[in-house]
Design brief:
The protein is mainly beta and about 100 residues long. The protein has a single domain, classed as OB fold (Dihydrolipoamide Acetyltransferase, E2P) (Beta Barrel), CATH 2.40.50.220. Strands 1-2-3-5-4 form a five-stranded mixed β-barrel. About 5% of the residues lie in helices and about 35% in strands.
C-alpha cells in the first residue's frame, strides 16, 4: 500500500466488460516527504469516489482485487481510501 496523488483521468471507450462504469484515475506515488515522484505514475480503479489532486491510499496486485466491488475484475491497482491527514514522526536513532 502507498500514498499517492490523483493527477488525471483515463477515458477508455473500449475495455473489459467488468470495468464498465468504473472510474480510472492516474496516480503519482508520493515519497516519505509527500513529494511526487517525477515521471512515475500508474492507473488505478477508483473505489472511493476520489477527486483530482486528492491524496489517496492505493493497493496493488491481489490486494487490489480484494477491494470493494473488484472481485474477479482485471485490476492491478485500486484506490481504497482518501487521506484526510497524516503525521510522520522522526524515529530516535534513525538518520535521514
Amino acid at each position: 500500500m502507498f500514498v499517492g496523488k490523483i493527477i488525471g483521468t483515463v477515458v477508455a471507450t473500449r475495455k473489459d466488460p467488468k470495468l464498465e462504469g468504473r472510474k480510472l484515475l492516474i496516480v503519482r506515488p508520493l515519497d516519505e516527504h509527500m513529494a511526487a515522484a517525477k515521471n512515475d505514475y500508474l492507473v488505478a480503479v477508483d473505489t472511493v469516489s476520489a477527486g483530482y489532486h486528492e491524496q489517496v491510499l492505493v493497493v496493488q496486485g491481489s490486494s487490489a482485487r480484494m477491494a470493494f466491488g473488484m472481485k474477479d475484475c482485471p485490476v492491478d491497482s485500486a484506490i481504497i481510501g482518501i487521506v484526510d491527514s497524516f503525521v510522520i514522526e522522526d524515529i530516535p536513532g534513525e538518520s535521514g
